Amino acid sequence: MRLLAVLLFLISTELQAQQILPLFQNDSLRTFVTMPFRLRKSTSEGIPIVSIKLVSALSECKAMIDPNITSNFLIRCESPASVSVDVYFEFNGVIQKIRYGPLTVAQISDTGVVVQPPAVTDKYKTGRELFAAKCMECHQSPYEKENKSFTQIKQSIQSVGEMNKLNVLTDAQIQAIRDYLNHLD
Predict the structure, then answer these.
(1) Other C-beta atoms lying within 10 Å of the C-beta of residue 75
(2) Which of 59, 89, 115 is the last residue of a domain?
(3) What pLDDT digit, counting tens, does each position of 43-81 carry?
């Protein structure tokens, strides 16, 4: 039994050592620019990607596995967006998933100057982070749920089976999520 526990610990530790690394100078994405990322072990060795799925992005964004380096994937967006990507890879004969993001894709103006999206206030930042951590597993885009009231969100948490795990959220946290969802633009 003890050997099994040690083995499970080692496997979970090795699995947690996987990471996604942006392969460009800064970590801000730009419209009309293809940005590369790499799935790697903590030893810097690339891990071949089995498939990828773009989530929480508008249809103007595309993602693909690099045809030349299978441990890399590429993202390109034609308009500003918040984007996440699920990266699937094989680990000990089992397909595993890592979600990377959300990332903010900034607009490039007609003059070629990067126009950063307006800064999100701390109030909306908290809601955005809570939505990403607690809600994006099922609601892959915040735009699916914009303009929801506090009461609607709270009732969904209490009545929708999959959302019952969110009963741990405080009213202040639910309000922060609501504020974020109602101020996406």
Answers:
(1) 25
(2) 115
(3) 778 889 999 988 865 557 888 888 888 888 888 887 777
